[in-house]
User: Fold this.
Amino acid sequence: MEHIVIIGNGISGVTSARHIRKLSDKKITIISAETEHFFSRTALMYVYMGHMKFEHTKPYEDWFWKKNRIDLKFGFVSSIETKSKTIYFENNDSLQYDKLVIATGSKSNKFGWSGQDLKGVQGLYHKQDLDNLEVYAPNNKICKRAVIVGGGLIGIELAEMLNTRNIPVTFLVRESSFWNGVLPKGESEMINRHIKNHHIDLRLSTNLKEIISDENGKVKSVIIEETGEEIPCDFVGLTAGVSPNIDFLKNSDIETNRGILVNRYLETNIKDVFAIGDCAEQREVIGNRRPIEAVWYTGRMMGETLAQTICGNKLEYKPGHWFNSAKFFDIEYQTYGWVFAKLKEGHQHFHWKHNDDTKCITIEFHSETNVFLGINTFGIRMRHEVFDKWLTEKRTVDYVMQHLVEANFDPEFYKHFEREILSTYKNQLQTV
Amino acid sequence: MSNKLNYSMSLAKPDAQNLSMIQKIAVTLGVAGLFIMILALLNVDFPNKAIFLTLSLGLIIIGTVIFSRDAYLKKTEGIKNDGVWFKSISSKGILAWATGIILTGFYIVLYFYAELLGQGSNGEANTGVISLFDPLSQLLSGRPASQWFVYGTLYTVAILAFGYKFMLKYRHNRYEQLRTASVMFFQLGFAFLIPEFMARLNESPQYNLPYYDLKSMWPLNYYLFDSWSINGFLSSGNLGLLMLLFGVISIFVISPILTYKYGKRWYCSWVCGCGALAETAGDSFRQLSSKKLSAWKLERWLIHTVLVFSVIMTIAIIYSYLGNDPTKYWLTRTVFLISIGLFLTLVFALIMIFKRNELVKDARYGAIGFFVVIAALFTMHFTGTTDEIFLIKSSNLRSAYGLYIGSIFSGVIGTGFYPIFGNRVWCRFGCPMAAVLGMQQRLFSKFRITTNGGQCISCGNCSTYCEMGIDVRAYAQKGENIVRSSCVGCGICSAVCPRGVLKLENDSMKGRINPNEILLGNDVDLMDLVNQK
Assistant:
């Protein structure tokens, strides 16, 4: 029986295992050094905040794996020898595979700051990060102030988490406005204000110079690059993005760049070795997508695609229209299609913001053809299916504005804003 | 709130440390109100009972109101689940166990030892805590209080006070607010005041109405067809007849229509009193329901067994109430049994013919099994094998049901165990009404929870906060709609979802159940392949 070995028990690896099992009787082994069972990484924040227990983050009950004959192996892979198809573990154990799927995900970026490896300095990605957070920032007595470095999705989540335990947070953001490499100005600035409303000490255009240690090798303070100011703190969260977790491949024959290089079939340069999820880097650009996408659903989709290939139906990875979502404290964010922070040539934006400063939308469209290209929506839920359809049908922005109510996905009895949005649109653009 | 995981069993660090000063004062006020009742329970004879009762209930309400305002209004609008699993009361800690034990004890005393509460027997005046409620009862119905009046008052106060708290907690969510306002209204008006006014009416010799919460439908209201109840209706003129008629129409006409259009939520989380308590006072315990597959299995067998029990019991009760002589009244025992038999056969046949494929194996076996049992009992009756329908005297069946289901299951376990098993234990495992509505919701209703394409990140907030123990995430992460008989449509899964994935809605029957994995974002060829079975 063919032995499929999957390194990594995150969403990508687990999805591929589940689908391989659905399609075949192959022997499947999933290796992880993080946790015994699959859990939802995106939910770690809710464990710290007390919304959930760690048990709740597991999408499948523990008996699921045995029942579906998916073997779980707890261990840290130190190297791979592709010639003999052998995996070596840190404890000198080894394992043979027929086909290998690498789905090791990401690790937090560290940019060589002085003091970045001190105690109490960490990212937020792995289960172990959550455990360490409980050691260094369990409450506001042990952690009198926390500093977060890096204004992205993980940074703002970490700020929200620490805030629930009444730990004062200083949030250092390199950019002049939160996440403005992704969000257009109006949205980014609304989120700045929302962050400050939660009593976060938000420092824009501010860089970290170094992290200072106390006598026990624990963080004592940070120094700001621009002003030289020293901020005393007991915890530093490094949240300046993530990068593929592939250090263990250094001495292997598997070709890597920032991530593991794969073609559209998710194959690496070595036969029978595949890479999916955060750790994979596409050789060939797919639409506007980045070559490395550390996104939950792309990992899942790659797992589904690869399962087909492994089970004899060779299939290209073809993601559909871009979409994503996040939550900034109390404000939900969804995006469908492409809205760029900096307007592309020949494109135009329409922006509407509600007076209460917690809801807004931005629509990007083509100036000449009026074709709708994408929407960012804050504080109003939208229906994925509808936008997916509109994007495929290449609807015009006028059509989208007139039919916006069909895309509303807010709970029943919620106040609707379509009329207000439409009248703002008419006033601004005079095209309808 | 202590900040360590699973810290809640600790005695050394009680939650009070994390309460604000205002919250501490609010708790003190509430406890003072309860203390007055405890003094009354210990037979302290208060001089002016009306004042002390007002003071007691008032302090409890004011305490809850102040606490809620301090807890929620000082924060921005949004989901307020911070520290739920760190607090002793909401994570099965020491406070939860203590509350559970006290509540359970209260229910046992209430149902079986009312004299301990001061219920006067043989026409004697009430004493103890029941006598404290005499002034209010006199005011409303003109009679002294009973243990049920005390219970009803406390029940209503709990729903009103905690309903207010719930509305502040979800002040950004109009669905939750309207739903809560609705249950508060139905509890205060229909469940509490109207039955008291019915008692007023009964002062006139023309009326002999059973005190009856009009919105409480059979089979939840299992005594609707008891002989005293039927006699009461029939001896109360047109009003009595109208009410009996309303009771029957509710079951066979109103409920099926509303359930078809809106799902069972129209009742379970907008009207029902059991649901009202669960959603308000029980809100802090919703996350405790078990999401295990084994719990779901137990739920399906248990709730449908209770339903069959209640159907059999009711048939037996009505049967023994009716006569055999068709010249006296058209509805004789034989006519009744044949029509019930036809009705049940029809329902069974329709489900088996049209919805067979939507039932999983054990549901089919269960349905066939229950049907065979009822059919066999009917046959035995008509072939003269037994005098008693269903082998046992109907009054025995009735009292067994009242004791085991009505009192122990719905009261002692259903509410007493809130802090341990969650707030919807009765609704999930026991309520026959929920079973009937659920069957219809699963097979014949427009209601569903729609999953928003491929946005789910499997975080599990929805499953954690589902009071009915539905593993919502299992559906959402596959892009499936959630169509489950147990769903009471509380809307919390949708509220707590951080990615806007879930929406409760009524839409066409077509395509409502989509057991295929249709995650958007994938290209179409792949999805076709994934869905090949």
Observations:
- Chain A has a mean pLDDT of 96.
- Chain A touches chain B through 59 residues (CB under 8 Å).
